[in-house]
Amino acid sequence: MSSLTPRAVLTSLKRLSHPPRSFLHWKTPLDLLVATILSAQCTDKRVNIVTKTLFRKLRKPADYVRLPRLELERLIHSCGTFRMKAKHIQELCRILLAEHGGRVPRTMEELTRLPGVGRKTAAIVLYGAFNKNEGIATDTHVMRLARRLGLTRQRVQGKIEHDLMQLFPRKEWGRMNALFISHGRAVCTARNRQCGKCVFWRSCPSSFVRGKRDLAE
Ligand code: SF4
Hints:
- This protein has helices spanning 6-16, 29-38, 44-57, 61-66, 69-76, 82-99, 108-112, 119-130, 140-148, 157-167, 173-186.
- It has two domains: 6-19 and 136-210, Endonuclease Iii, domain 2 (Orthogonal Bundle); 29-130, Hypothetical protein, domain 2 (Endonuclease III, domain 1), CATH 1.10.340.30.
- The model has no long low-confidence stretch (mean pLDDT 96).
- The protein has eleven helices and no strands.
- 54% of the residues lie in helices and 0% in strands.
- The chain is mainly alpha-helical.
- Iron/sulfur cluster (SF4) is lined by residues 148-149, 187-188, 193-195, 198, 200-201, 204, 206-207.
């Protein structure tokens, strides 16, 4: 396992960057939920372009439900897997109206019962919109960095999240996603890890400067 302690990792990441709560643009919990669903297999930049128009037209669950499916698909087309995303968004908006008074629920259990909403999406919404630390949004950057830093040996998303939740204090769970993404995008990139420029190069068990193999592979 890593000679890097979770505390040291977090302290360094906090010094390196001050990312926003979310890289997605949103004003309401529903905006954040929709934007996070759209961000699956899509860049945050592309999602922010799409939602600029989308959120001007559609503000409440009823707006999404009333819109013809084809029109919603057209609006979100460039985010990819648009048919599935449009279906999930309309179905979950129907459930919000029928079961939650038109509001986005505030618990992991209720959120993950909605179509198209897994723990990652729910954790992002709970932290971003409600300031609740109920999980660690474990996306591709978090998974890669956690493995490279030796914080987990797991490969499956849920198991990696579980390991990280054991290692890091709950009050940090929400902000970890943006901190890991910042480092994952700037230095510890998927294809070309830049260990020579990395603050962790002396102790990271994947540091190629020290002749180590990439533990994320
Ligand atoms: S030393 Fe290399 S592998 Fe380790 S975190 Fe830094 S960039 Fe990633």
